Records
---
Amino acid sequence: MSLEGSLGERQLREVLSTLALHSRTGILTVQGSSEIIAISFLGGEIVSADALNQSLEDGLGRVLAELHLVEPRSFAGLAAEHQAGGGRVVDLLIERAFLQPEQLLEALRLHIYRLCRQAVSWQQGEFKFYQGDEVSYEEGITPMPVEELFALAANELGDPKLWQGPFPEVTTIFARAGTGFGRAAGRLDPEALERIGPESGEIVAAVNGRRSAGEVADAVGLPEYRVLYILHRCEREGLLEEVGRKEELAPVAEEPTEALPYILAAGRRRTRWPDRMGDWQDRLRALLPASDLWPGRLAGLGLAAALIWLAVSQPMRIVLPFGYEEGLRQRARAARYAASEFRIQRAAVTYRLLHGQFPERGIDLANLGLVEQRDLADESGRSIQFSSTPVSYVAQSAEGEASSAGVVVAGAVIGNFLLDADFGVGDHSTVTPLVLLD
């Protein structure tokens, strides 16, 4: 396809519309009085733009600074590294963690739009289209339809001739198509949302029949002119309809939950939902007096207190709450008791070696650091009681029996002789010690 000529004879708007209409792929060069801009098309949509007298680094740096994403000094350092052969600036921005990939793509798209807007504003110059099978562009970039370029440029340049047809104002209120009093909302068309762009799903989800277009832009965190364009496209696709202005009463629409899968699939932004939550709270308060909410609140507090008590007194009931899991609970308790019994038994033997007798209280073992406090009580909170004799001891849960209901430990002196408590050997002793060999 050969397409070239003078801007004085044919407006650039007509040229761009022709390329979009025939879904052309290639590069359109536009030469002005002091600049040449090359616009890359893929299937009739804009995917890239370059200028002769301004590099990508210059334009992208200004965009990032305006969006408060990267400081000019930091970007200049990356540009210097790029000039020294350190790689592309767009790659360095991601590698150095200055930007997330989606932030970089958004900034690149705004840079592309500004170059195209500059070319559209020219009244004099030459243009020529070079058709091809493929063009170079940044992977992941969202193509820009020419009608989006016309709509945004007409708004910023103040030239209504670029955009034909009514354009919504910031005070316009939209609702889902077919919504209203007594009418259910029609299902959203995923294919239509995909044609409009990845941001259309979250914008439609933020439309509730009460918000103005400006408030929708605030809710999703997008520029107003971008939201106005997408709202207009959604209206043309039959997804939305204008229901009034902000100063007028508007019907309450159903929440467009069908748009949520598209939002998750697009992964472009995370919609801010506080206003939507506030809407539901307002509706609930309108339906129920404040006094009617207290029974539910008290019931919730009681349930929370019961759960806390159960977690403290019977923790296994929280981990294994069902009746058929009683066997697992018993095995877990038995394992815990077995571990405590082993520590108590070892501590009692150590205590006897140190003091010549078995302990009479569990606290004696804890004070020496031989056991922990948790070893001296069972799951029900009953303390471990010791009963000692010169040659043996028994430790069990208070009021407990020798069963699996609690901790039970017993020990005794093992051997074929007993140590005489009156027998002592020291530096002052004159008695020759007797050593018995078995």
---
Amino acid sequence: MRLAAPPVGGAANEALVAFIADLLDRPKRDVHIVAGQKSRDKRVRVGGLTARDLGARLSGILPA
């Protein structure tokens, strides 16, 4: 995923969290970057969804 926000002052991380929260219809407080805060590669945790729910939401959004 590419973001328009620059990687300055955490703007890109904030944009990523907001995008994922909106995409999955979750509040931003449920989306956390757990690894890679200063890297291009990140690991994100989404609270309030089971793995099955997350998979179902993503399969309905992302192209096959």
